[in-house]
Design a protein that fits this description.
heterodimer, A: Dipeptide-binding Protein, domain 3, eleven-stranded mixed sheet, four-stranded antiparallel sheet, 19 strands, B: mainly alpha, SBP_5_dom (chain A), peptide transport (chain A), Peptide/Ni-bd (chain A), transport (chain A)
Chain lengths: 521, 334
């Protein structure tokens, strides 16, 4: 069976003659090569970078992030706080779905309820109790407690076409069903309000898009009329495809090829400091010595983050001394990497481990950029304070089960906050592990500091931005002083395109290129 | 086939956990456990195998975790691309290796033969992905050479001679495919399709071509020493007729045997070629299935490739009987 999705092109054609203006001029071809293609068309099936990139192409969120991490109105043209727990949103009028239906509060409610059912997304919407419809274009988002990240969560609400996704499909299943195992209606069909319509899709081969004639945003400068997205997994091939002119836009760009692309006169390279932190956790349950703060600090002093970023990452990473990248509320400006071997040795001596000890270490070898090489470097650096490291690197599919079992004394993890907020780091990586609340789910170090946890919890109900930032920064500082983990760096992001494709304005640190607004000369 | 299925099932523990690829980072343990239960991953391996085998004998090789559809359908979607690649590479091998091999055997001392032998030694020792990368650099991206002084006539000429323009497609199958039947879209019927096919097929052929040239040359030289050829030469039959009718026929016997096996191996080699060229065939699919721990798809792929091996070997045995009448198939009356 051919995995071709014939979208409802005819439906759209019937939906009315296209308006004059930007839509009529949008006729440029764009060939994109990513490292993977979207696994499904159902934007609620999986929470991943790839799915969000697709969401921004075929759907539109209520509000979206700007380059400098503030919000800009999309389908919601304005919003105001009603009380501590309620935010009122006003929808844009006359926005059309790809199917021709008109967007209303009903659709947003439908989407909200579906998000709460989605395995991957429900965690983000857990603080919300309800979405109340006021009228066709007005609705209230209600949280259980005062919730400071309400707008962050609203960037995840990409309204879906309620009429289109209601009823039964030809196999008798509900059209709005979300499932990772079976083929659902929503995984094969889409009707959003986004700038592009999927016209055909062959999993793992290519996806084709065409511009939606009735796209609401007539002010968008975007002039791309047709997109072919090809997944090219092999780094070298992806770069070759760009250099040979086979594609117009590629992401990600492997660090080893940055120079090659910079040198090429026909291509543009855009890099940004990313938000994904790479770190090592030191398991206090497995190693008695890690319970001693001085030992943890000694480890933190022994690691040369700047060296790793410069030598192994070829400058393609920002050395880190904390979890929160710049722009996040918890980011503390003063925290710098503290590489100092003499200090590290001194601390080890103080703690009574002058002769060192032996630990085990595990890291993935195909998950993060140069992950195995980083682990080797860290092991070598630890040898200088007499710690012998027994290192094992594994492919990611095998690494995560080991990580869940906390199978080594030091384990590597990379983390990106889904909410683009510092508290998310703490909740998953540093809070005392608690199986009931799900806190500290990825805290393989078993680090536990109830005082900091309390601060995080307070910050999570504090809606005053300044006060909240203060609390989060206090947590960040506390973690640094405690040397709760060893931060390494934030992985940089890189994209490359042909010179005539102006990608710079549409890129952001979240790595959601807003291709709807892309201008091709 | 049974053995393959058991082995591929046995290795699945080493492949890791497919769940990580399916869920986001913040999904709770309890929900993951639920999904695992739904997929039947918590049952003992024996139970899982029994369930798989019961379905397999009815032609159902389970659903792929990732694609969410029957694995055989997924493989059938990808198989034509791979087969076309193998066919194109085989054609190249046949068309090139026979004339070159024969020539090298007839005129072992000629410069051209020595050149071919030299190149084939180099070719046999270069790994296929390197060949592929070099091909892409030369013919897709293009190389500009400025080693020679550009202000002299001969320098410019040499620079131009060694520079390449590029422009060959370096990935995928292109847009211009001709639909044949079922899941089979062909690259053979359009110029654009052929261009896309060119580099992958050349790099795939590059591993087997030298082998066949050497094989044909060696066999041919041996045959040329045999008594009946000398007799034919003594009888004054034209050398052309001797070489291409009598000698070549006997040369081809072992070549066909080896060739059959090699075609099977080539299907396996496509994994590398397809990865480098993003050729959407079964090799690429298999590699991705491994990184995703898509166990049903891995098992199904191994079974299908096993089947291809069995079929090609059987066909080779049958063809052998046709070419060489002295080989009688058992069960056939003499």
């Amino acid at each position: 069976m051919k995995r071709l999705l014939t979208a409802f092109v005819s439906c759209v054609a019937l939906a009315g003659a296209p308006m004059a203006g930007s839509a009529a001029e949008a006729n440029k071809e764009l060939k994109i090569a990513y490292d993977a293609d979207p696994v499904t068309l159902d934007i609620h099936e999986q929470l991943s970078g790839g799915m969000l990139q697709l969401s921004h192409m075929t759907f539109d969120p209520l509000i979206r992030w700007t380059k400098d991490l503030t919000f800009e109105p999309r389908l919601a043209k304005s919003w105001e706080r009603i009380d501590d727990n309620t935010m009122r949103f006003h929808l844009r009028e006359g926005v059309k779905f790809h199917s021709g239906n008109t967007l209303s509060s009903e659709d947003v409610k439908f989407t909200f309820d579906r998000l709460k059912k989605s395995q991957d997304f429900k965690a983000i919407f857990q603080p919300f109790s309800d979405l109340k419809i006021i009228d066709d274009t007005t609705f209230d988002l209600v949280t259980k407690k005062p919730y400071p990240l309400l707008l962050n969560a609203a960037t995840y609400i990409f309204p879906m076409d309620k009429k289109f996704y209601s009823g039964k499909d030809d196999q008798g299943r509900d059209k709005d069903m979300i499932s990772k195992q079976v083929d659902t209606f929503a995984s094969r069909h889409e009707s959003g309000t986004g700038p592009f319509i999927v016209t055909s899709r062959q999993q793992g081969v290519k996806v084709e898009f065409k511009r939606f004639d009735d796209y609401w945003d007539k002010d968008s400068p975007g002039n791309v009329g047709h997109i072919t997205l090809t997944p090219i997994k092999e780094n070298n091939t992806r770069v070759s495809a760009l250099l040979s002119g086979g594609v117009d836009f590629i992401a990600p760009v492997p660090p080893t090829d940055l120079e090659r692309i910079k040198r090429d006169p026909n291509t543009d390279l855009v890099t940004m400091s990313g938000t994904r932190i790479i770190l090592f956790e030191m398991n206090q349950k497995r190693v008695e010595a890690f319970k001693d703060k001085r030992v943890r600090q000694a480890f933190a002093y022994a690691i040369n983050q700047e060296g790793i970023a410069a030598k192994i990452m070829k400058g393609f990473a920002t050395p880190a001394a904390q979890l929160s990248p710049e722009g996040y509320q918890g980011h503390v400006d003063g925290l710098k990497p503290r590489y100092d071997i003499a200090k590290a040795k001194e601390l080890m001596k103080e703690a009574g481990y002058e002769d060192g000890f032996t630990i085990t270490m595990m890291a993935p070898n195909n998950r993060y950029v140069n992950d195995d090489k980083i682990a080797q470097a860290v092991a070598a650096m630890l040898a200088r304070i007499n710690v012998k490291v027994d290192l094992k690197t594994l492919p990611k599919a095998q690494y995560w089960p080991e990580f869940d079992n906390r199978a080594a004394d030091m384990m590597m993890i990379g983390w990106h906050a889904d909410t683009e907020d510092s508290a998310n780091f703490y909740e998953f990586l540093t809070m005392c592990p608690n199986a009931d609340t799900g806190a500290g789910q990825y805290n393989a170090g078993n680090y536990c500091n109830p005082e900091l946890d309390k601060l995080v919890e307070q910050a999570n109900v504090e809606t005053d931005r300044a006060k909240r930032a203060q609390m989060l920064q206090k947590v960040e500082q506390g973690l640094y002083d405690d040397a709760a983990f060893i931060p390494l760096h934030w992985q940089d992001l890189a994209w490359a395109s042909k010179k005539n494709v102006e990608i710079e304005p549409i890129l952001n640190v979240m790595n959601f290129p807003y291709i709807g607004d892309l201008v091709v000369k | 086939m049974f053995v393959i299925s058991v082995i591929s099932f046995a290795i699945q523990d080493g492949l890791g956990d497919p769940l990580r690829q399916m869920v986001g980072q913040s999904v709770s343990d309890a929900e993951r456990e639920q999904l695992r239960e739904d997929l039947g991953l918590n049952d003992p391996v024996i139970v899982q195998y029994a369930r798989f085998a019961a379905n397999a004998v009815q032609g159902d090789l389970a659903n792929s975790y990732f694609y969410g559809e029957p694995t055989l359908d997924v493989i059938m979607d990808h198989l034509p691309a791979t087969l076309e690649l193998v066919i194109a590479a085989s054609l190249m091998i046949v068309c090139l290796s026979i004339p070159i091999g024969v020539y090298a055997a007839i005129r072992p001392r000629a410069w051209l033969s020595k050149f071919f032998m030299g190149v084939s030694t180099v070719g046999i020792s270069i790994p296929v992905f390197l060949t592929a990368i070099v091909l892409i650099q030369l013919f897709s991206i293009g190389v500009t050479v400025d080693w020679f002084p550009a202000d002299t006539g001969w320098g410019t000429w040499l620079n131009d001679l060694l520079s390449t323009d590029g422009g060959m497609p370096s990935y995928g199958r292109g847009q211009d495919l001709t639909h044949l039947f079922g899941t089979w879209d062909s690259n053979f019927f359009s110029w654009d399709g052929l261009l896309h096919l060119m580099l992958p097929a050349v790099s795939l052929a590059s591993i087997m071509l030298p082998l066949f040239i050497r094989l044909i040359r060696a066999e041919m030289m041996e045959v040329l020493q045999s008594d009946y050829i000398r007799y034919a030469q003594a009888k004054g039959i034209s050398p052309w007729r001797i070489n291409f009718l009598h000698a070549l026929k006997n040369t081809m016997l072992p070549v066909i045997t080896v060739g059959g096996v090699q075609i099977g191996i080539m299907v396996a080699y496509t994994i590398l070629t397809e990865t480098v060229f993003q050729w959407p065939g079964v090799g690429l699919m298999f590699l991705e299935a491994i990184t995703r721990s898509d166990i049903p798809l891995i098992v199904a792929y191994l079974m299908v490739v096993g089947l291809i091996f069995v079929i090609t070997n059987t066909v080779v045995d049958l063809v052998y009987g046709l070419v060489n009448p002295t080989v009688k198939l058992t069960g056939k009356k003499a």
